[in-house]
Amino acid sequence: QMKFHFDVVRYKRFKTLLLDYLDLVPAFNNVKWVYYMDLDILMARPFVNLISGLDRTYHYQHSTSSSNLFFFRSCSKNYYANSGFFIMNRNTSRPCLKLWQDELD
After folding, report:
1. Are 19 and 31 in contact (CB under 8 A)?
2. Is the predicted pLDDT of residue 25 greater than 90, yes or no?
3. Mean pLDDT over residues 58-64, rounded?
4. What are the backbone angles phi and psi of residue 44, rounded to the nearest 5°?
5. Residue 79 in this model has a pLDDT that exceeds 70
6. Left, alpha or beta for 59 (phi > 0: left; psi -120 to 50: alpha)?
7. For the chain, what percentages of helix, strand and coil (3-state, to nearest 5) are there?
8. 3-class SS of residue 92
9. What count of other Cβ atoms lies within 10 Å of the Cβ of residue 93?
10. Which of 21, 37, 50, 102 has its CA 20 to 30 A from that of 13?
11. Which helix (H) or strand (E) holds 10?
12. In angstroms, rounded to a whole number, what is the distance separating the alpha carbons of residues 73 and 75?
């Protein structure tokens, strides 16, 4: 089991509740894919290019897994999965988010 510093865990745990918060806003009821990005990430090109490039590379929009949550590694070899940018499927990601939450708790 991973060990986390409390201040880091507090903010990461909030990320595990994102779909629950979306459920509170009826305007988001038809949203299927949720792209989470930390505020400190800088985009230098159009976001649509990122989305289409990620789908071409990872084919996440065509996944048939019963549950999925897509994280991406940093370019550095010193870092593993980065929770600063990830993709959730509104219909299938909840079990993965729950496992992540359990790990943080």
Report:
1. no
2. yes
3. 70
4. -105, -5
5. no
6. left
7. 45, 20, 40
8. coil
9. 22
10. 50
11. helix 6-15
12. 6
Length of the chain: 105
Q: How far is CA 37 from the centre of its chain?
A: 8
Distance of alpha carbon 26 from alpha carbon 7, whole angstroms: 31
CA angle, residues 92, 98, 102, in degrees to nearest 5: 160
Continuous H helices in 16-93: 18-23, 47-58
Can you name the residues that pair with 3 across neighbouring β-strands? none
Q: How deeply is 48 buried, as exposed, middle or buried, from its count of CB atoms within 10 A (0-12, 13-18, 19+)?
A: exposed
Structure token digits, residue 77: 């070899």
